[in-house]
Specification:
Length: about 170
């Protein structure tokens, strides 16, 4: 197939490419970008196309693979990797931002519920939400790490029971 024939056939399948791109992305602008990326790759790698084979299938495979690679790349960019053993970074608040009257009220209610707990549960839990790691808590309180983890777990369970109706009343 000559370069002219290749380019002409590629241009003629534009509407089919756009429909296929829409079926993958469900977004007009993203579909146009995908079609453009596919054109670029098809023209760049036209020497890889084998004459007398299905050009449409070859181009659609390029489009599908480009979509999949873009999707995977976007998922990796949105994934927060936490290298710590205790998932310390995942437990940190990212940004408190503006505190509305409703949220400050809820913070007060939650603090009141935490303060009402027995010392053996309240102290490790408060240390945990302040950012201490399980190991640090166990060393400071002279407890086994398993005890610290279970107390924090049970404290969460107690707080969920205590505050279960709170979300419905707001």
């Amino acid at each position: 197939m000559t370069t002219f024939d290749f380019n002409r056939n590629l241009i003629e399948m534009r509407s089919n490419m756009h429909r296929f791109a829409m079926s993958l992305t469900y977004d007009h602008d993203a579909a146009l970008d995908l079609v453009q990326d596919t054109y670029l790759k098809a023209l760049t790698y036209k020497d890889k196309f084998v004459d007398y084979t299905n050009l449409k299938a070859w181009v659609f495979t390029i489009m599908k693979n480009t979509f999949i690679n873009n999707y995977r790349r976007s998922q990796k960019e949105n994934t927060l990797m936490d290298p710590t053993n205790d998932l310390y970074y995942l437990n940190q608040p990212h940004d408190k931002g503006f505190i509305s009257p409703e949220s400050s009220y809820s913070e007060a209610e939650i603090s009141k519920a935490i303060d009402s707990l027995e010392d053996e549960f309240r102290i490790p839990f408060k240390m945990h939400i302040e950012g201490y790691k399980y190991k640090e808590i166990s060393e400071k309180l002279d407890l086994k790490i398993g005890t610290v983890k279970s107390r924090i777990f049970f404290t969460r369970q107690k707080l969920m029971l205590t505050l279960k109706d709170y979300g419905e009343n707001r």
